[in-house]
Each structure stands twice: as C-alpha cells, then as structure tokens.
Amino acid sequence: MTYSNRMTLLARIGFAARGLVYILIGWFALDVALHGGETTDNQGALGTLAAGPLGHMLLAICALGFVGYAVWRLTEAIMDPENRSRTLKGKFERLGYVLSGICHIMLATAAGRLALAQTAKQRGSPGDESAQGWSAWLLEQPGGEVLLVLVGILLLIVAAAQALKAYKARFDDLGGDVPAPDYVRWIGRLGYAARALVFSLIGWFIISAALNHDPDRAGGLGEALEQLRAQDEGALILSVVAVGLGLFGLFSLIEARYRRMAVEKPDFLR
Q1: What single string gives the DSSP state of each residue in 139-180?
Q2: Which residue positions in the chain have pLDDT lower than 50?
Q3: How high is the pLDDT of residue 263?
C-alpha cells in the first residue's frame, strides 16, 4: 500500500471517528435538553466509549484515525496540494487546517490514554478545564491578553466559515462530478450550522476571558451547550443544536466513505 493510500485510509477512519463522537455528543445533549443533567464534549464522549463492548479497541481505532486525520489536515496546511494560497480565503482555510490538526492530535492523545486506561473514564466536559488551563497559562505570558483575543477571533472566523459552508452547501469534495444528493446537502447544512453556533460561543468565551483577565470565563463545547441550555426556551434551543451536532456526525460518516482527498508525501519522507 502506498503512502497516499495509507494516509487516505487513516483520514477516512478519522472522519468516521469524528462522526461517532459527534453523534454521541448530540445524543447526550438531547438527553440533557429533555431530562436535565450534565452536558459533555468531545473528550467526555470518548470516555463513554471505554465502558462499552470492545470499548478499548474502539478507542484505539479512534486514536489511530484521529492521528491520520490530523496528519492529513496538517499536510494540507503545510504543502497546500490544492493551491489554496492563491486567495485570502484559501490562506484562512490553511490556518483552519492547522487548528483542526492540533485539535485532533489532542483528541488522539485523549483516546489513546483512555484506550490504555491511563486516565479516568469521565463523561463530563474535560475540554472546559483544558480551555481554562491553557487560557490561564497564556494570560501569564507577555502580551497574553492580545494572543488570547486573537485565538478567540480565529475561532469566530472558523465559525463564520462553518456558517458560510452551511449556507452554500456546495460540498464539492463529496463524490465525483455529480453533486451530492439534496438530503446529504441538508444533513451537512444543518450540521455545519450547529457547529457554527457552537464555535462562535467558544470564541466569545475566549475573548471574554482575555478582556476580563479571567481564565474561568473560557470554555469549550461543554460550556457552550450549558449556556444554550440556560437561555429562555433553552430546552428547545439545545434540542435543535443537539440534533444538528448529531447530523454533523452523520455527515462525517458520509465523508468517511465518499470524500475526495488529496494526500501527498511530505518532502522529508521522499
């Protein structure tokens, strides 16, 4: 199997792992909206897998997939096989690929440690504590407030890109020359819209932490879902977002099967 084929396979496993995690997040969020309780995030959803049948094996596969997905995204960002740097939009997309790669390395680490039983199996929102931890560290550095604001702005840009993707619903990377079916486009559209809302909230939490010099204001996916639940008609809002996140998970599974991927071997491996 060539390097390209191996990386493509790992990236597809990564899409499938991401899909499974988002379906779990959507399911748990819907349960919280209807019955109350504690929301969960990506890492918390991974923790629930450990208790299931073949949980450790499934987590190991997810960790491998997240590594492949991260390497694919970082390779896209560094080598730019589709020449996205020709436009300002493309430059921002490459920056987003770097962020995505880093996030999936963190998910791979969490899944790997859970698979090896090196961390406690928790369902909550460890991502919130992580966001507060690195926000506190960054605020202690020279110019930390500015850097933290820039991180928040980057997340808002990512949210805007997700919203634009939901609006346009082109999804040209799926399949061949034939456009994706309408029902697939709607699944992707609703999924990306839910992610846009969540990312915008996380971005605002980070900016608020910087402006108030209070890392406790930072938060991740779990905190975003909690804030939605706390609003007027919060149960309804969270239910809609939960369904959207679950649909994003389903769309990720579709991508795992049909997405076209340009995978090139880095120069230092040639």
Answers
A1: HTSTTHHHHHHHHHHHHHHHHHHHHHHHHH---TTBSSSSPP
A2: 268-269
A3: 60
What confidence score (pLDDT) does residue 248 get? 95
Which tokens belong to 8? Answer: 């493509």
Residue type, 10: L
Question: What are 128's strand-pairing partners?
Answer: none
Question: In one letter, which amino acid is 17?
Answer: A
pLDDT at 200: 94
**pTM assigned to the model:** 0.85
Query: How far is 10 from 219, CA to CA, in rounded Å?
Result: 30
Name the amino acid, one letter, at 248. Answer: F
Q: For residue 68, what pLDDT is reported?
A: 83
State the pLDDT at residue 173.
75
Are residues 77 and 97 in contact, defined by beta-carbon separation less than 8 angstroms?
Answer: yes
Tell me if residue 51 falls in helix, strand or coil: coil
Per-domain residue ranges of the chain: 3-269
pLDDT in the model for residue 268: 43
Note whether 22 and 252 are within 8 A (CB): yes
R_g of the chain, CA atoms, integer Å? 18
**Burial (0-12, 13-18, 19+ Cβ within 10 Å), 195:** buried
> Is there a contact between 241 and 194 (Cβ–Cβ < 8 Å)?
yes
Tell me how many degrees the CA angle 159-27-22 measures, rounded to the nearest 5.
40
Residue type at 216 in one-letter notation: D
CB under 8 Å to 48, separation ≥6 — which residues? 24, 28, 40, 121, 123
